[in-house]
Amino acid sequence: MSTKRLLIVEDSRTQAEQLRSLLEEAGYTVEVAHDGTEGIGAVEARPPDAILSDIVMPGPVDGFELCRRIKTGEHRDMPVVLITSLSDPADIIQALECGADNFIRKPFEPSYLVERLRVLFATRELRAKNRVTFGMTVLFMGREVTVDAGRQQVLDLLISTFEEAVLQNRQLRQSEEELRLAKAELDRYAGTLERRLQTVLETVPDALFSVDASLGNLFYVSPGAVRVLGYAVDELLADPQLWRRSIHADDLAAVLEAFNRAIESRLPQAVECRFQTRQGDWRWLQLNVAPAVEGPQAGVRLDGVARDITERKRAEAALRESERAFRETLRHLDEAYYSVTPDGLILDHNLAFNRILGFDVGLDMSGRHTPDFWLDPDDRQAYLNELMTKGLVGTT
Length: 396
Known about the structure:
Elements: E1 5-9, H1 13-25, E2 29-33, H2 36-45, E3 50-54, H3 63-71, E4 80-84, H4 90-98, E5 102-105, H5 110-127, E6 133-140, E7 143-150, H6 151-203, E8 207-212, E9 218-221, H7 225-229, H8 233-238, H9 242-246, H10 249-265, E10 269-276, E11 282-293, E12 300-308, H11 310-331, E13 337-340, E14 346-349, H12 351-357, H13 377-390, E15 393-395
Parallel strand pairs: 1-2, 1-3, 3-4, 4-5
Antiparallel strand pairs: 6-7, 8-9, 8-12, 10-11, 11-12, 13-14, 13-15
């Protein structure tokens, strides 16, 4: 059997070369024309065994017009295969009207195109001896269309179109199955992430929360609320005002002010307050909130962290008490205590300092210079040298 010659009519040089390579690899001899007018000239110069033509091409001769001219001329028996995206059902009728033998849908599998050509040539050879032509008029989308083609030609075109529909349906089912599997995988992954996040949140010692801009509705509270606030998550979410009522009356205004400042300024804010737990005891909390905007039309919510700082507050109070006791002890020492700057400026002193130097015990000596107390210039300079070399604290 002689090698079949094919004419490709395709304005895209890249696609034309891809088609040429595919068909030559399948054993065909291939010639390329880059528009409909050039394609007509190629047919007249050297008629091929079949034409594969794109439909949409520049110039006065598109794929339909090319097919129409071939089918009404001396080469009317030459198979014409139109390559189309099948974006409009009218394409099928136009192809019938112009006498096309087959459709190939873009994009196509290379093996599918090769098989369609094989079937096309094999079928035409079987029917070559008893082909009958006829004409018929049909009404399609409000207009009459006259189809002048062989019965088998019409049948071939409709069957190929049906095969395209079947193929599209299979691809659609395959895509749906791939989407279903992808969704199942995403759901599985999302579930894994959710479980991991839940595990992390359960181990965070602080209470995480989200509240709306009105400060009247809690969106979320983390499991740490039980440890920090003494309330279960469900209790706090079920009663939107519970968290407000649990804040000390003297601290609530400062908390609300900080929250509103975060909403208005769109900047993070921090505030400390006392909070009464479900068990009735009071805890000190540090509340850090930051505004979160979900979109240009969405409102602002506050995401925050509530940290129990009760022990820190107790430690600070104990430290202050210890400092107070220490200073009280220094104040009543029999020996003079004082603290000065390097140049002798008195910062602090006790009662004995005044008594030993002969000043009134109740007189505050802070801000005075100790060198002024030395009458002898040499003693005064020696004292200054001592201050500079040995530090700020001394006893007399």
